């Protein structure tokens, strides 16, 4: 299955199709690209910290806090959206 994004993951602007072919565009402009990549970097750092805390909780208390799991899932969804991971359809 080939995934081709139709809108910018940062601002939602519809992406133009390139008549020359090649790799599809993911960002509508250079500003969205820089801003999106910076957001991805921040999310990656936050996710790393939250996941490390999750493992500490599991080691110490043998349970995962539901709020921590929810926050990790939300951040991971946003990161995946910016990274261009296609959404799963059921």
The 3D shape can be described as elongated
What is the number of strand segments? 0
Secondary-structure-derived class: mainly alpha
Cα-atom radius of gyration:
17 Å
Describe the oligomeric state of these chains in a short phrase: single chain
Task: Report the uncertain regions.
Answer: none
* Annotation field: number of helices: 2
Secondary-structure element order, as H and E? Answer: HH
Strand content: under 5%
Main sheet summary: none
The termini sit apart by 15 Å
Average pLDDT for all residues? 85
Helix proportion: 55-70%
Task: Tell me the layout of helices and strands.
Layout: H1 30-61, H2 66-83
Helix pairs in contact: 1-2
Structure commentary:
By secondary structure, this protein is mainly alpha-helical. The chain has a domain at 32-83. 56% of the residues lie in helices and 0% in strands. It is built from two helices and no strands. It has helices spanning 30-61, 66-83. Helix 1 runs antiparallel to helix 2 (66-83). The two termini are 15 Å apart. The mean pLDDT is 85.
């Amino acid at each position: 299955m080939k995934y081709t994004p139709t809108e910018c993951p940062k601002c939602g602007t519809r992406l133009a199709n390139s008549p020359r072919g090649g790799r599809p565009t993911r960002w509508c402009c250079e500003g969205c690209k820089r801003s999106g990549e910076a957001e991805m970097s921040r999310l990656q750092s936050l996710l790393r910290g939250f996941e490390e805390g999750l493992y500490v909780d599991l080691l110490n208390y043998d349970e995962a806090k539901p709020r921590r799991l929810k926050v990790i899932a939300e951040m991971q969804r946003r990161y995946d959206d910016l990274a261009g991971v296609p959404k799963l359809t059921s």
